[in-house]
Amino acid sequence: METPPSIFLRPFDLSDAEDVLKWAGDDDVTRYLRWTSVKTVEEARQHILQTAIPHPWRRSICLLKDRRSIGCVSALPRTGPRPHTGDGRCRADPGYAVSRQFWGRGIATAAVRMAVEQAFEIFPEVVRLQAVVEVENKESFGESWV
Hints:
InterPro entries: Acyl_CoA_acyltransferase, GNAT_dom. It is built from five helices and seven strands, in the order E-H-H-H-E-E-E-E-E-H-E-H.
């Protein structure tokens, strides 16, 4: 595997709309997410305003060299008891999306590792992050997060 580009995580900004459209407008990128692809710059702006910014912890995955958004990573703490699992407030669910141009280069792995570290700091009640991977999403099975 080639060396992944240097990345960092930062909060989303409305100025990210054009970059977000590039990756969040790709149905292959959003196929396994809980939201549908955006189709215009305005939809990307609305997604940033209504979904990314208010999210408890969602960050833009950015290239260090130009600060361009190439995806997102999130951690969502559970809010209460779940059937048959007891109190779920000590857990959080990570998620990510990466521009197709950067698939297979270790970007998701690097971003999730950064997110895990930050999520435990931001949400002190969380003691475990657990991810659900769609069976059809075989590419994500190879990601070794931690």
